[in-house]
Amino acid sequence: MESQRIIQGVSGAHNEAALLALIKQTGYSIVQENGQRKFGGPPPGWEGAPPSRGCEIFIGKIPRDLYEDELVPVFLKIGKIWEFRLMMDFSGTNRGFGFCTYCSKSDAKKAVKELNNFEIRKGRYLGVCSSVDNCRLFVGGIPKTKQKEEILSEMSKVTDGVVDVIVYPSAVDKAKNRGFAFVEYESHRSAAMARRKLIPGRVQLWGHTIAVDWAEPEPETDEDIMATVRILYVRNLMLSTTEEHIQEVFEEAIGKKDCIERVKKLRDYAFVHFRQRDDALKAIEIMKDDSVIDGSRVEVVLAKPVDKNDFSKVAKAKGLQQVFFGDGRCVHFNLYEVAYIFCKTFRGVARPNVPPIRGGRGRGAAGSRGAGGNKGYVPTLMRGGYRRNPVEGRLFDLLPGVELTPTNPTTLKPLSVRSPVQVLEELCQKNHWGIPAYQLHSAIQRDAITNTDSQFFLFKVWFLQLF
């Protein structure tokens, strides 16, 4: 039976001999099913439950003609693999990405650190990051008068596997919710089945049409970094609560004066900076259960530092304005205050203060939206380039005696001048290259005159169908 499974996963592959040699060398089995080829899962001699959450990593930018016989030995050098899954298409080539599950979290973290940007072939680098098994859905369109217990009961009626519901009160009226909730499921499969059932819009809650999509997973922060954090995040404050009062409450709670460096309050949440980490941990222990400030029940946790190497997290932390497109791409406005791109060929066409397009996809635990979905970004040339001083709208005087002709906007011809992005995408469609993906890169360059370092940004364009 086992040999039959091996034949199903390997037989007919152009590198069949190499895969059989890998099976013989490692003792793992290989089977292909549901568009993916599985190596292991479990490994030989494994007893007990599968590895816990946090042991899986995502591997991207895999060359289409590269397979387990070249990939697995690289990842085995980090630690014992429980399962390696390579996504395959019908032609027999891989789809450019896969997943590797280690037997321990420490090996998974080590793989991310050591194998991200690993040169698997000359000039070809892998992209490796932690994989999050998302079990949480964003549900919008909920009546603001509904309480947590009512939402939990209603979601349990229409979907299976509901474990918990996270609801945040309105910043203005604490008796009401914000019109959305996060629904936690017992497994990723349960969440996926619920999303499939709810996303067509046929299901209504309390007579309201709801919007359902994946919630943005909680960011994973390195344990070594979290061990040094001495800043607390306080949520669900009253708008009228002052920074001075917050400091007084926390100092009184731990019975120690002058233990706080400063408090930074933003709308209905705040960051409390302690001088010593022990004082911050003591404050959490005292105020973690049903603490009330100015009549509002607050939540107190350790603040998670933003990974400065993760562009999407930095963008959200700085409150950068974003515009989202249907395929997950986004443009950030007011992004580069010091360093910016300027292209001599194209004039900048600025659209300052463009409101972001709201939706369910990518919403995080606070309801904010990050750069989820496709991590490629729309190139700067779509807007003519980022500029230090955006072009502002102008008013033009109408000249006396000018002839005004009634015009139907639907009959206007499109502009004959197309942006480079439009030209590129039309070329890709014509040659069946697929939609190009754009990845933001940066570089540090020293100015010879001012002797200062400046950060410059550029986009790398990927033609996925050519890999």
From TrEMBL:
Signal peptide: none
Domain annotation RRM: ranges: 55-133, 135-217, 230-305
CDD domains in UniProt: RRM1_hnRNPR_like
Name by which UniProt lists this protein: RRM domain-containing protein
SUPFAM superfamilies the UniProt entry points to: RNA-binding domain, RBD
SMART domains linked: RRM
Molecular functions per Gene Ontology: RNA binding
Subcellular location: Cytoplasm
Main location group: cytoplasm
Cited InterPro entries: HnRNP_R/Q_splicing_fac (IPR006535), Nucleotide-bd_a/b_plait_sf (IPR012677), RBD_domain_sf (IPR035979), RRM_dom (IPR000504)
Keywords: Cytoplasm, Repeat, RNA-binding
GO cellular component term, pick one: cytoplasm
Species of the source: Lymnaea stagnalis
Entry-linked PANTHER family: HETEROGENEOUS NUCLEAR RIBONUCLEOPROTEIN (PTHR21245)
Pfam families, per database record: RRM_1 (PF00076)
